[in-house]
Each structure stands twice: as structure tokens, then as C-alpha cells.
Amino acid sequence: MATIEVGSTAPEFCLPATTGEICLRDFRGKKAVVLYFYPKDSTAG
Known about the structure:
The chain is mainly beta.
């Protein structure tokens, strides 16, 4: 797994969604995008 440095550009990725698929590229050029990562379920994180 690659390490991402603070302030660097996020790598391209797509994820399944109820409407098919959502990709980071869909938001390129938008004013702001927030990515939220959370610890694995049922952990102390």
C-alpha cells in the first residue's frame, strides 16, 4: 500500500455506489472535495 503525504494529490479511484460507480475524477475541477477515512468497524480507533 502506498503512503500518501499530507497536501499531495489523491490517487484516482472509483467505488461502488447505489447509482453504479462514483469516481474521484467526477469531482475534478469542483471547488472542494472532502475524503473521510475511518477505522475498521468495531476497533478502538
